[in-house]
Amino acid sequence: MGRFDGNDYSVPTRYAYQSLTATGTIDRVRFSHRGMAVAEHARCWARKQVTFDPLHYLALLERKPGALDHARPLAGWQLPGCFAGLRRRLEAADPRGGTRQYIRVLRLLETHELAAVTAAVERALTLAIADADAVRLLLEQARQPQVGGFDLAGRPQLSALRLPPPDLTVYANLTSRKGVKS
Questions:
Q1: Is 40 exposed, middle or buried (0-12, 13-18, 19+ CB in 10 A)?
Q2: Measured in whole angstroms, how far is the alpha carbon of residue 135 from the centre of its chain?
Q3: What does the pLDDT look like over 23-34, one tens digit per residue?
Q4: Which partner for 124 in 71, 129, 146, 155 could form a disulfide, CB atoms 3.0-4.6 Å apart?
Q5: Is-contact 73 56, C-beta < 8 A?
Q6: CA 96, CA 64: separation in Å to the nearest integer?
Q7: How far apart are CA 125 and CA 119, in angstroms?
Q8: Distance (Å, whole) CA 4 – CA 68
Q9: Which residues, 6 or more positions from 85, have their beta carbon under 8 angstroms from its beta carbon?
Q10: Count of alpha carbons within 13 Å of 20, Cβ hemisphere only?
Q11: C-beta atoms surrounding 25 within 10 Å
């Protein structure tokens, strides 16, 4: 927590017990560490108030996932309903590690917009995915530019070319017990 003008504001947990510089304007409070801004909040003009940003605590919760439902900084944090659906799916698929996987998905919000992460979560639910890394991959895939089709117009030498279908038995041999080396 950083303190400015009698109020406490959250900062990322990695800056706990570090020297921070607080700068206040008429509407914002910014905390910097060694010249780099690490947190910014809307300024609170009341006294003895605490302002949290839930994203500041996710790294700590990833190490202590049992505190997720009781963490004061997350109280009142409204996320789209698909996040709760993904949490249920992750925890059902892995009762011991599902909450930690869910927190890993929430940590995507540290570096990506809520709308983009929400779209990836919705896509994961559609595909019946129960893995945080898969949600991250869906998010990254959505950021990739769409590749257009290859147009053969004006390339008659290529349009005459015919390729035989692939022989999938080679792949089957690789994945069978006989083809796998231990």
A1: middle
A2: 8
A3: 999 999 999 999
A4: 129
A5: yes
A6: 12
A7: 10
A8: 27
A9: 125
A10: 26
A11: 8
First to last CA, the chain: 52
Task: Please name the amino acid found at residue 97.
Answer: G
Query: What's the one-letter identity of residue 85?
Result: G
CA distances from 56 to 72, 106, 109, 165, 168 (A): 12, 11, 11, 52, 49
Residue whose entry in the numeric block shows the structure tokens 């998010």: 139
Q: Quick one: how far is CA 89 from the chain centroid?
A: 16
Residue 86: C-alpha distances to residues 81, 94, 103, 141, 165 (Å) = 9, 12, 11, 19, 39
pTM: 0.73
Q: What string of pLDDT tens digits covers the 182 residues of the chain? A: 888 988 899 999 889 888 999 999 999 999 999 989 998 999 989 889 888 889 999 999 999 999 999 999 998 899 999 999 999 999 999 998 999 999 999 999 999 999 999 999 999 999 998 899 999 999 998 887 777 777 777 787 877 778 888 888 887 777 776 545 55
